[in-house]
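Slack export, channel: ligand-projects

TW: morning all. Re-posting the request from yesterday since it got buried. We need the structure predicted with the small molecule present, not the apo form. The ligand is S-adenosylmethionine; the SMILES is in the block with the sequence. No rush, but it would help planning for next week.
GE: picking it up
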Amino acid sequence: MAPIASKKAGNDRISPAHVAKLGDYPSRGGPDKAEILIKTQLGAAYWADSIHLMAETIEPQSLDLIVTSPPFGLVRKKQYGNVDADEYIEWFRPFAKEFKRIMKPQASLVIDIGGAWKPGLPTKSLYHYELLITLCKEFEFHLAQEFFWWNPSRLPTPAEWVNIRRIRVKDAINSIFWLSPTPWPRASNRRVLTPYSNAMHELLANGYKAKLRPSGHDISDKFSRDNGAAIPPNLLAVANTESNSRYLRYCGENKLPPHPARYPATIPEFFIRFLTDPGDIVFDPFAGSCVTGEVAEMLARRWICSEIERVYLEGARGRFEMDPAPKSQGPHEPTVYKIQRPGLLWNGANDHLPLAADGGKKRPVA
Ligand SMILES: C[S@@+](CC[C@H](N)C(=O)[O-])C[C@H]1O[C@@H](n2cnc3c(N)ncnc32)[C@H](O)[C@@H]1O
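GE: finished. pasting the full token output, ligand included:
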């Protein structure tokens, strides 16, 4: 059986025709045999359980980037097959083992993962931190950096704690862990620069007086050099508000359910640009609607997507069959998101309302 990503492949196209020959494997709720549902010049999307696809067809040390959003360990079972938070680590271990095996030594593993609230309690599960620690301690990945994806359009949830009892604030970020088998993964922040802020433009125009900051940092005059663009922080502000894409139109026209937990194309695009060169191989083992494949194709990277639910790949065909459209944020998306500095309304207006002595355990009467 020919491997999917042979080390000898160089910049050859991926040739996944062999997958139809895969043997049957024990069902984890997916297909008996991997099947290619989407094939392009640069990649392929498989209807498959990724564990089996990786184990049976992907060569050791052959991938440059795994960027993915696995099913989150939500406490309620969702329609796309989430496992319970407590079982999450056990469920993830075989994936971690395969990821480590198939990644090139300087490849990156990028995992977008949301937090989970414990059932019926205003406290959070530690499952994603446990996952991070397991990946680093047990599988010897290095944490290159953690990112935070702030979704400015996130609704104020969980409503019971945030809106009704008023004892927690809006949960609006996902963690994104960037890991690698080495402390030195291939990367260049020059690929993901961002425009200077107004404050920086002013500083460049008016000059900056080099001085020692209260933090002890020596701000030398190097900071007033105009490099043309800014290095982004590890906070990615991206609204998840796709409403009129070719993907959604395709799903509507073909009466297919859009994937309920898609990430915006900007998330995989940031990491594909940052961590790979054209021609490199990108893999998404929890592909859902194949956003990663679509972005990789646009950026001339080779790609493999694998998704266990056939219906989501049926919808994903729309990403490749209809007329191309811009993949990053659309022209009508805001280019700058503002977040208020805490304290603007700290005028003591509600200070006469005492904190609930029971921590909000008793639900307030409406
Ligand atoms: C959070 S969603 C990913 C959504 C995707 N990033 C997108 O934007 O469309 C996770 C996906 O992993 C899939 N999945 C779960 N277990 C899998 C497995 N063993 N092999 C392949 N896919 C799996 C689920 O069906 C679900 O569609």
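GE: first-pass observations. The CA atoms of residues 66 and 283 lie 5 Å apart. The first strand starts at residue 35 and ends at 39.
TW: perfect, thank you
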